[in-house]
Amino acid sequence: MDDICDYCGNGLTEWDYMTECGHVICGPCYHRHNRVCPICKKPCKFALIGDQTPYNGAGFLKPVKTLMNDSENIVNFQLSCLTRLVGVLRSKLAKQKEILNQVKHELSLVTEYKREIHRLRQENEYLKSKIRSRGAGN
């Protein structure tokens, strides 16, 4: 292990212990404070951790410094992913805005065409009525 004892500050070895309250202490501190956490001063259970620990999940008992570094790496990865996602979403939003602007332009053209059709129908009716009135006058 590459951390230090939470109590004495000495480097940890292959025979170290973790208290049930989460403190990591070296073997000598464990033997001096048998069944009492030297940090909390409360009775507690100890679990042997270190290179000599038989596999019982000890790999999950990482030093706090390692956990913090792992957490920082995870947060940086997530931030990177979110930043890329924001970029993708902004790109999609820009495309949607472009499409909406095209649709607005086409709708305005349709409105103009409808007005022109209405004007042409009125002109057509006017011309038909003129033709009828000339035919009636003959």
Please specify the SSE layout and strand pairing.
Elements: E1 16-19, E2 24-26, H1 27-32, E3 46-49, H2 64-137
Antiparallel strand pairs: 1-2, 1-3
What does this structure look like?
With 138 residues, this protein is mainly alpha-helical. The chain folds into 2 domains: 16-61, no CATH class; 63-138. 58% of the residues lie in helices and 8% in strands. The protein has helices at 27-32, 64-137; strands at 16-19, 24-26, 46-49. Strands 2-1-3 form a 3-stranded antiparallel sheet. The radius of gyration is 41 Å and the shape is rod-shaped.
Mean pLDDT: 86
Helix content: 55-70%
Q: Report the strand count.
A: 3
N-to-C span? 116 Å
Global outline: rod-shaped
How many separate structural domains? 2
How many helices? 2
Contiguous low-pLDDT stretches (5 residues minimum) are none
Question: Strand sequence of the main sheet, in spatial order?
Answer: 2-1-3
Order of helices and strands: EEHEH
Largest sheet: 3 strands, antiparallel
- Structural class estimated from helices and strands: mainly alpha
Rounded to the nearest angstrom, the radius of gyration is 41 Å
Quaternary state reads single chain
Q: Approximately how much beta-strand content do the residues carry?
A: 5-15%
Short key terms for the protein model shown above:
2 helices, three-stranded antiparallel sheet, about 140 residues, about 60% helix, mainly alpha, 2 domains
What is shown here, in short?
By secondary structure, the chain is mainly alpha-helical.
